[in-house]
Amino acid sequence: MWLSGFDLQLAQDEKAVANFLASYNLDYDVESDLTVVVKQGEEIVATGSLRENILQCFAVKPELRGVGLSAKIVDYLVQAAYDRGYTRLFVFTRPTNVDLFKSLGFRLLAETSLAALLEIGTPSIQDYTRDLAGHAVSVGGSVGGMVMNCNPFTLGHQYLVEQAAVSCRHVYLFVVQEERSAFPFSARFEMVKRGTAHLPNVTVLPSGPYTVSLATFPSYFTAEETTHARAGAGIDATVYGKHIAPALRIDRRFVGTEPYSPVTRIYNRTMEEVLRKYGVELIEIPRLEIDGRPVSASEVREGLRADDYERWSVLVPETTKEFLLSPEAAPVIERLKKSRGRH
């Protein structure tokens, strides 16, 4: 039921919302597109936010839980998302909120001790895995899976794919589709396709919204080494093990060792623990080194920012070099020079 004396409104004071969330050990996402609060008089007693098609940052004052405040906020945000043209919505939340969101029509995708991911609308994860199964190749022996951002595609990436291809009868390489990187997905996908064209047992696929996305692993796109990063890594790995690996009969997941990124190290360790439960072995491959240093996409980006051809050109295959020297790459590189983001 909805009690009188409560006022649902758009948040006007982000600092007040952040303070309210902090009192429940929650962080406010300053990149939220829309935040609503429920006020009782002048006091915030509940809040929730929308970022693209993701519902997040929910909190309700403990003594008012169960009176319908959460449902009212969710209804408002879902309608706002639909009005913006989204047909599939996600909520990344605490496990204690799972029953609430299920009662509102959301479907549970993954749950760990730290977090849960649910969705509502279409296309659903069943639609996604059905499409994935259409790419399945009937082979005997081990089937490998890889997920890469490739921002841009380097000799290091190519080496990892080649090592996986030698170890398996077939390899599915997912390119992160989320548009949070310097190089757009279309460019990254094309670089990967060209850079792996010599490997007949490798299928390159877009990751979709269920692998290293803003919904499944938001901390991947920040520099946070926090509980939130561990929660996201657990959810992302659970979705992969529970839904994606079975659709393609993947029994091995390949990753490179991670000397630089704390978040990626968290992801690798969490994956190892989670995927084991689903019969998927995590295999860590030592990173390719040139002159004693691991090849990294971030080093390529730094070379591009500095207009240092000698610095970046030795780190990428010819296929990537051709793209980076093409007119198509020029605006991307110009944007890169103005940005200092992690990706």
Descriptive labels:
343 residues, alpha/beta, Aminopeptidase, Rossmann fold, 2 domains, 7-stranded mixed beta sheet, 5-stranded parallel beta sheet, 22% strand
Question: What can you see in these coordinates?
Answer:
- It is built from 12 helices and 14 strands.
- It is an alpha/beta fold and 343 residues long.
- The protein folds into 2 domains: 7-122, Gcn5-related N-acetyltransferase (GNAT) (Aminopeptidase, 3-Layer(aba) Sandwich); 127-338, 3-Layer(aba) Sandwich (Rossmann fold), CATH 3.40.50.
- The strands form 3 sheets. It has a 7-stranded mixed β-sheet, sandwiched between helices.
- Helix 4 (125-133) packs across helix 7, helix 6 runs antiparallel to helix 11 and helix 7 crosses helix 8.
Give the gist of this structure.
The protein is α/β, with parallel strands linked by helices and 343 residues long. The protein has helices spanning 14-22, 69-83, 98-103, 125-133, 155-167, 185-195, 227-248, 262-276, 297-305, 309-313, 318-324, 330-338; strands at 7-10, 34-40, 43-51, 54-60, 88-93, 107-111, 116-121, 143-148, 170-175, 202-206, 252-256, 281-285, 289-290, 293-294.
